[in-house]
Design a protein that fits this description.
single chain, 604 residues, Ubiquitin-like (UB roll), 4 domains, three-stranded mixed β-sheet, 45% strand
Length: 604
């Protein structure tokens, strides 16, 4: 049997080198496009084994990549094409065609158009008969490694990428099982041309088995070590896992305390079996100042500004103060968040809001104090519960009344979307329930508010430049009647984050002055088609509908208001800046002809 020993470069060529070519490097003459005598030429790839091979050839071969430059002469073009023959042969071998050959042909000089024909003769495709893993420098018993179980194409075509994938998986498995310094050494391959088979032997350095050792923090002074240790996801003496170490590093990065952070093992294998971990990082500036400008037709201009501190006392305690100021609304908000409160993944959250509002639905001067616990059950699930106290002086339909309320809000949230401000894939929903009790208009009152919001985002192309976004909301208040619920706690719909095309809170029943009354139930649905059409510029088209009812269930006696519109998006580094115009499709006498909206972030 003829023996053909193949090096790693042969198998990896199609994987790592084709984008820049595996044949000779470009000459200086081709690096700078000359005055061409051949303005353009056609390329024909003859004999390609499949479409994927043809696509790869277009990316890898110089004759394709330099096609738009033309060529100085036929001789120059021939040399360019001949330089691709070696690449074509390596591509064939990487797909298991170890006897494959390639040649080139130029059309005759008298032809009207210059054509370069790349002839490919794949030959028989070799089967991977065996793939053995050889473990060397073994100090402790490693886990059993089966090449086929790790993805090697044993019994099938000897495709290079699949062979390399299995080798990478073997290294990953060893490192997950505590062999922190395991690495791939190389491979040998033996081909049998008569049987059209190939056998591969891959070698790995295993080394010794390690456990997690001491964690030290290098020059991190702005954060307490004990706080950073709360994110450690292994027990003392546990078998070392590279995957767990990377998860720990990712958790530290997600705290927002660092511009860069790393958790590393020693460069060289230590003699001790307890592997020390060193954490180093560059701290972020602790304070952030932000400002924003918002506008819609109903509420006019709204200016927002905030100051946040992300590390108040050295354990990532986050405090912020935010101000909203508009012609009809002024809010001052204080918030506090303490992560890792009492246990991993749990946060203490609190807030105080002071507000003055003079909107169509009511006038209010009031404040709300909240305190609660939020717990991350997983990367996508969060639950929370807490309490609130609210004091308000409300003017509605010329009457002034006071409200003193206490509530116990609870919620569950799911979010697997890919971006907070510009989601292009995934699902998010939140369901909340808040029982209220207290006094309103000098009488006792109790009611239960239930509110559910959901949205999904479906990319329509691989680059996710075209996205179909859908959303819905269903809410209900269980109360004796509408009059026992303060106007500030009733349900409303309409506006820039609701049914665009209608004024803020204007969907649903209106009083004799054309002002919204609010209701005990609300329903909203919406669909938006988003398209990023040119660079950072995008357009949207949307259709939305909703209703508000004085009953605790949607009865639609006041009709369903529908609206449609279009908008523009500028995808800035801080998120999409949106401009929308919405038009009511079944307006009432008190509804405007259209509404304009300007803000940061998608509508939902």
């Amino acid at each position: 049997m003829d023996r053909n020993v193949l090096g790693r470069g042969l198998l990896l060529c199609a994987l790592s080198g084709l984008a820049s070519g595996c044949s000779d490097e470009l000459s200086l003459a081709e690096a700078s496009p000359p005055e061409t005598q051949i303005e353009g030429y056609e390329i024909v790839l003859d004999g390609a084994p499949d479409e994927a091979f043809s696509d790869l050839a277009e990316e890898a071969l110089q004759v394709y990549r330099l096609e738009e430059n033309g060529a100085q002469s036929r001789a120059f073009l021939r040399r360019r094409a001949e330089g691709d023959i070696e690449t074509l042969v390596k591509m064939l071998k990487s797909q298991g065609y170890y006897e494959g050959t390639a040649s080139i042909e130029l059309s005759p000089p008298e032809a009207e158009e210059v054509t370069v024909t790349l002839h490919v003769i794949p030959g028989p495709r070799y089967e991977l008969a065996a793939h053995d893993f050889q473990l060397v420098e073994v100090e402790d018993t490693p886990p059993p490694l089966d090449a086929k179980a790790l993805g090697s194409p044993v019994g099938g075509p000897a495709v290079a990428q699949d062979i390399v994938t299995a080798e990478d998986a073997a290294v990953g498995e060893l490192q997950r099982r505590g062999f922190a310094y395991a690495r791939f050494l190389g491979r040998d391959a033996v081909a049998d041309p008569a049987a059209h088979t190939i056998e591969v032997q891959s070698s790995f350095q295993v080394g010794r088995h390690y456990t997690f050792g001491d964690v030290t923090f290098d020059n991190i002074t702005v954060v307490e070590d004990e706080y950073l240790r709360t994110y450690i996801n292994w027990e003392p003496g546990e078998t070392f896992s590279q995957a767990k170490l990377r998860d720990y590093q990712r958790e530290l990065s997600d705290t927002g305390l660092f511009t860069a952070v790393s958790a590393d093992t020693p460069e060289n294998a230590p003699k001790s079996r307890a592997l020390p971990i060193t954490v180093s990082g560059e701290p972020r500036p602790p304070r952030t100042v932000s400002a924003g400008l918002y506008y819609d037709t109903t509420d006019g201009v709204l200016v927002k500004g905030s100051l946040a501190h992300r590390n108040l006392f050295g354990r990532n305690e986050q405090g912020s103060v935010a101000l909203e100021a508009g012609l009809d609304t002024q809010r001052l908000q204080f918030s506090y968040l303490e992560p890792q409160f009492k246990r991993d993944g749990q946060s203490l959250v609190g807030g105080l809001e002071l507000r003055n509002e003079d909107i169509d639905a009511y006038e209010e001067q009031g404040g709300t104090l909240t305190l609660g616990i939020e717990r991350e059950l997983s990367d996508v699930w969060t639950v929370g519960a807490g309490g609130l106290v609210e004091v308000s002086r409300i003017k509605d339909e010329g009457e002034t009344s006071d409200a003193f309320l206490g509530g116990i809000p609870v919620f569950v949230r799911y979010d697997d979307t890919d971006d907070l401000l510009d989601p292009r894939e995934g699902i998010r929903f939140r369901v909340s329930a808040t029982p209220f009790g207290g006094e309103y208009n000098d009488e006792g009152t109790t009611f239960l508010t239930l509110d559910g919001n959901a949205s999904t985002y479906v990319p329509l192309d691989e680059e996710r430049k075209y996205v179909l976004a859908l959303r819905g909301r269903l809410a209900s208040i269980l109360a004796e009647n509408l009059d026992r619920v303060p106007p500030t706690r009733r349900l409303y719909a309409g506006g820039g984050g609701s049914i665009r095309g209608y004024g803020t809170d204007m969907v649903g029943p209106l009083d004799d002055d054309g002002d919204p009354v609010g209701g005990l139930s609300a329903m909203e649905v919406g669909a938006e088609m988003r398209a990023q059409v040119w660079g950072d510029i995008g357009v949207v088209a949307f259709l939305e509908a909703g209703s508000v009812s004085p009953e605790s269930y949607p009865d639609f006696d006041d009709g369903v208001q529908t609206a449609a519109g279009i908008g523009g998006r500028y995808y800035s580094p801080v998120g999409p800046i949106r401009f929308d115009i919405g038009v009511p499709l079944n307006p009432r006498d008190d509804d405007d002809d259209f509404q304009l909206y300007f803000s940061i972030g998608q509508a939902f």
